[in-house]
Design goal:
Chain lengths: 349, 349
DNA sequence: CCCACTAATGTAAACGTTTACAAACGTCGG
DNA sequence: CCGACGTTTGTAAACGTTTACATTAGTGGG
């Protein structure tokens, strides 16, 4: 007997089910008197519409899926907060998928939309071969997808996106280290198959090149976006001779690992090694020393991404017209935040 | 034309829709020849069952909701990892609800189950007045709910749960500080409306009492489970005279805030102030100094909670029989992990 | 008082599955 | 060759909504 159905409410109120349905969805279409009767019947039965039936009938679940590398990273937590906020406002729930655990392949994720389990997708992780052919084959309509944080992959170029200018930001961060007098600067990034890492690497190389500095082999290592990954990456970096005097970590999470590893190796920060992070997570400012980093407006990114996705979903199939106008990427501002993990190098080159 | 329906597949394969359905759900019931035909038709049309229709028909979404204070806390991230792992294994997706943002009231959450949007609930946050009357009124069946991490609230006593022995753990942690020679020990907890905080407080008081120590007024402050909250809490603690020589934080997250605030106030840790955390998150060991804390098997808790919920869901309505056998709480082991944020007090009392 | 027009309500089909039941088909022992 | 039984397939109802369309009630002008 779980929960009452519309039929019972209709019977009790002495009206047809259509009227009850109208009462629920557009009360202004039902007369005052009837409204009262229906209201009473609903109160009496404790009726709640069966969401499953509604979703089925309407062909919409009001659920969107967000795909990201790891929910554990505090930066993504911030983005999620923004997503969740505007999702709540607009009546959507969100389903999370972490690529880190390879729980699903890109095709499976796409299948969730095709099979109508989900109304759209937010991609915060570059899934490069996003089975786009598969998708367009499976469904004639374009999938509602929006890309966030990441630079959009070529195959996804048609989709809207919102992110900071990763190459400019990385370039500025590196330039700052250079301006402090550093010449040997290492970089700890994620896997190079990630476009985001590639962009930040491009920015790093660009700044180095502009200063006429070379990027020696072994100066760029993969820290796997994790603390542990950054710890081993840092060990590799410190084993180099001459070793870098500064390290640009493409993520605060990795900067934390790097900080720990460097200190474990007996170095003091920033005297012996300068550290630059990225993201300005809540941990950055409570580290010791507080991390110099690049801040991104995480929550704002989340909000904009979700809002854009809602628009995509709601405008439904008919896209056509001024596609490009809507599909342009939104670039949100980044900012270098200076704290205490960077100082001029002690040993002169 | 989004995605093909079972009808089209049936037509192309030259069979009835029932046969196609059987092919999908219990292929052993259809003959070899037919299987081939259907398989071909599916391949040709790219058929994917409409999940909405399936859910509607079966009355199950295979989605469960988990309610927690904040997904950002690394401890919960660990629990979520466990939940997600076993959810994936068993074919469930998970919907997250953070109470921190008050996106939904307890009643609304319950309504999601009643209205069939969700098959069950995992409560990692104590929602004390969980509108249980409302629930049992709305639906005659018991809701599939399982409680994790938290001590279960009296109204939820009937539901299964899995958590560490919070009072014992807090007691051990405090006893360790006492054993190091501390006499004035402060505690930074969450809101006292949280049962978890209350349990850990009870453990703290118990250890103090056993050592014949008094808990002075002002020694227990609310750190709001956040870094910022802990920072102000610490300031209040340090303003006391005489000030505590050690602080027990009921969360590593708050211990991090406490560490930062103490250091900002010019104290060195652990020489001037000892710090004990709780949870052993991934940040604990990379802090400087590394945090002494109490570890909980986060992932294991998640796995067990989810597995229990699956059992609840799958056994469906008919509970009866040996209810209590299943409904007992599972206590998972905790462990004190000794690192470097605790030392004997410098100033002798 | 009737007609026309609007507002309110009812009827019934449709959405894509699953599944109880009935029907058809094979196979095999007699 | 027949009947019985097991296997495979088909038929049709059901799940709880929404909604196009038909119908009825209500309103006001002529």
């Amino acid at each position: 007997m779980s929960s009452a159905s519309i039929k019972q409410v209709a019977r009790i109120a002495g009206v047809s089910i259509a009227t009850v349905s109208r009462f629920m969805n557009s009360p202004e279409k039902v007369s005052e008197k009837t409204r009262e009767k229906v209201q009473a019947a609903i109160a009496q039965t404790g009726y709640t519409p069966n969401t499953l039936a509604q979703s089925f009938r309407r062909g919409r679940t009001n659920i969107v899926m967000v795909v990201l590398p790891s929910i554990g990273d505090p930066f993504f937590t911030g983005v999620m907060r923004g997503i969740r906020r505007t999702a709540a406002e607009r009546g959507y729930s969100i389903l999370i998928n972490e690529t880190q655990f390879n729980t699903m392949t890109a095709d499976e994720i796409a299948a969730m939309v095709v099979s109508r389990q989900t109304d759209g997708i937010i991609l915060l992780a570059s899934m490069s071969p996003f089975g786009n052919e598969v998708l367009s084959a499976k469904s004639h309509r374009a999938l509602p997808i929006v890309v966030g944080c990441e630079t959009v992959a070529p195959e996804l170029a048609a989709y809207p996106s919102v992110h900071v200018d990763n190459v400019a930001a990385a370039s500025e961060a590196t330039a700052y280290l250079i301006a402090q007098g550093h010449r040997r600067i290492g970089m700890i990034g994620g896997s190079t198959s990630s476009l985001l890492t590639r962009d930040r690497e491009a920015g790093y190389r660009q700044a180095m090149a502009q200063a006429g500095l070379e990027v020696a082999s072994g100066w760029m290592v993969n820290g796997d976006l994790s603390i542990d990954g950054a710890i081993s990456a840092t060990r590799r970096l410190l084993a180099l001779t001459p070793r870098p005097t500064a390290v640009f970590c493409t993520t605060d999470e990795m900067a934390i690992g790097c900080l720990h590893a460097a200190r474990s190796a007996g170095l003091s920060i920033p005297q012996d090694l300068s550290l630059m992070g990225f993201d300005d997570t809540r941990y950055a400012r409570v580290m010791s020393p507080p991390l110099t980093t690049v801040s991104q407006p995480a929550q704002e990114i989340g909000e904009q991404v979700m809002a854009t996705l809602c628009a995509e979903i709601e405008r439904g199939r008919p896209a056509a017209a001024s596609e490009d106008a809507e599909n342009r990427s939104v670039i949100v501002p980044h900012q270098l935040v200076l704290r205490e993990s960077v100082a001029p190098p002690a040993d002169q080159v």
